[in-house]
Amino acid sequence: MNFGHEKKRVLILVKTYPVPSKNYTETVCTVGVTEEGKWIRLFPISYRYLKDDQQYPKYSWIEVYVTKAVGDNRIESFNPKMDSIKVIRPPLKGKNQWNEAKSLLLPLAANSLCELSQKRDGNISLGIFKPLAVTDFYWEKEASDWTEEEKQRLIQDSLFDIEKKPLEKTPYSFHYRFRCNEPTCTGHDITIIDWEIHQAFRSWRRKYGEKGTLNKIKDKWLNTMLSPSRDTYFIVGTHHVFKTFIILGVFWPPEDYQNTLFN
Questions:
Q1: Span 185-236, pLDDT tens digits
Q2: pTM of the full structure
Q3: What residues does each domain of the chain span?
Q4: What mean pLDDT comes out for the span 160-182?
Q5: Which residues contact 3 (CB under 8 A, 6 or more apart)?
Q6: What are phi and psi for residue 55, nearest 5 degrees?
Q7: What is the DSSP string of 41-84?
Q8: CATH code at 6-94
Q9: Would you call 136 helix, strand, or coil by DSSP?
Q10: Is the pLDDT of residue 160 over 70?
Q11: CB–CB of 170/141 below 8 Å?
Q12: CA 251 to CA 234: how far, in whole Å?
């Protein structure tokens, strides 16, 4: 029974890397677009503790029961009922996948991050835009392990009663420097927290070593995703506390597909 909950159908676009949580062991933030074409943020979700058939890949459609978020006044934020999550369609492939996502995303596109920043007072906290020029991608060294408090959260007794591999901490943060399509833009330097970039670090490090992995990540997130053959956008969201924008993910369909949307 889902009394008091509203059913949503959501195209999944990005999810953040898990972080330790006081109440939920670990959580991720998931962002997508509803079938009505509206942004939605689903939080908290203990993604690794979902059943296998509930774990949603990027560009899949899910059905989930939600309530308006408690303690979060951002208009796009909803608390999901975790046991109601159901993958109702896996990702499409190739051209169809990109075109479907574009048909929902591009009507929501802002001109710039500068424009989105001006809308934060109205609690607009999610957006997509095309950067005018990306000047750098870099990383910064972070703590190599969780704090003692975070470790306690990760080993606390949970409601799930499911054994999972320990949550590995990525010892780096990753950042883009770019300029917006605004005459007054002085440039931006912000973090990207997409699960994919952290997963790339974890899986590639075993094969290429730490230095080689960092260089491969830079090559993909700077040169491949932002190559002239790609029609690249940044998906961003605000930090719950500080309200500053963070890059949640990169949307990088092939340039060839941009004119085939409505053919």
A1: 999 999 999 999 999 999 999 999 999 999 999 999 999 999 999 999 999 9
A2: 0.91
A3: 6-94, 110-257
A4: 84
A5: none
A6: -75, 120
A7: EEEEE-GGGS-GGGPPPTT-EEEEEEEEPTT---TTEEEE-GGG
A8: 2.40.50.730
A9: strand
A10: no
A11: no
A12: 6
